[in-house]
Task: structure prediction
Amino acid sequence: PLYCSASAHDLITKNTTSNIVPKETIGVYWQSTFMMDSSVTIEDRVEKIINGDGFAVQEFDSAYEMQSVAIRKNTCYIVCAVIFNEKNDVLMMQEAKPSCYQQWYLPAGRMEENESIVEGMRREVREESGLDCEPITLLLVQENGPQWIRFTFLAQVSGGSMKTTAEADEESLQAMWWDRVSSLPLRARDILPLIEAGLRYKEMTCFPPTLPVDTPSHVLCQRLIVTFTDTNRDLWLLLGTGKDLHLPVTVSGVGPSERSCYLAFAVRRLMKECMPLSQVSVKTQGIFGLQHHGKDPGKTDGICFNTLISVEYKLEAVAVVHTEAPPALESEKFRWYKVDDPGLKAKVEQRLVSRSVIPFHSLF
Result:
C-alpha cells in the first residue's frame, strides 16, 4: 500500500487502514515499490548517486531564474591541486603576477572555456609546475556563490619535469617541493587547510575516491538527497513530484538577483518552500559527487552537485509534533518516501553517521 494523508485520497489505488498516517499530517508518504519511471526505482537512483555516479537532471523544483551558466562571463570556477611526494612535501609554484610576485601558492587558476574540471586542473598544474598529474579524488569544494567556486583535488605526479627559473613565464617563475616547515612567503594562507585536508585523506580515506561525472547541465544546481530518520529508526527521503517522482533539484541563479547569493541559499529556499523551518534543523553534510561537461561553452558550463542533507526536529518542536513521522509538508510539489531496502538504508546511514562525503563549504 501507499502511505498517504486524507488530502491525497485520490492517489490511493487500494483501500488500507493499518498504514495510514494521521489526518493532521500534511505530507504524503510513498513506499519504495513506487517507480520513478517504468524501469528505474528511486533506490536505483539513490544507489547510483551514493556510488559517486550521476544522471541527467530533467526537472527543477525551486528556481528564481533559469539563466544558462557561461564560464568567465557570469560564473568563475577555480581549480586547485594538492600533490605530495614520497616525503609528504607538497608541490608549490612561485607567482609571476605583479600583484603577488615571487610569492608561493598551490598550483591553481581559473577554468577556461571548453574544458572539464579535471582537464582544467591538469592544465594549471602543467603550466605552473611543469609536471603532469592524475587526480586521485576531488578533495573539497568551496563556494562564494556562482561568482566563485573552487574545486580542490588530491592528485599525483604522472610525468613532466619540475619548472625552473630558466623556464619562467607569465604563468609562474618556478616550482618546488615544500616541506611545510621551512619559511616560505605565501600568497595567501587559505591554502593551508587544503594541504591539511590532503594529508588527512592520505592517512585515512574519509570518503570514496570521487571524480566529476561527465554529464551536461546548463544551470548551476543541486540535486538534494534530503534524509530524515524517525523515532522508529525508519529512513525517509524527500522527493519532488512533477512529471515523475524524483530527487528534488534547486537552482542557483547567475543573474543579478542571485549571483551574489551563496549556493547554500538555494538549498534553504527549496526547504522553506516545502516544510516549516521553525520546527526543523536543516544541515548540508557534503556532496556525494558532481556532474559537469563543459564541452559546449555557454550550454554545458553548468554543474549539478549531488548534495546530502539531513533534517531533524528542533528540541522545542518535539513536544508539539508527531516525531514518529517526517515533518509535515506544506506543498503538493513534494512527498516523503520511506526507504525499505535494508542495504541502501545501511549505506545512507553509514555515510550520514561518518559524514563520509566530500566537504562542501560556503565561505560566509
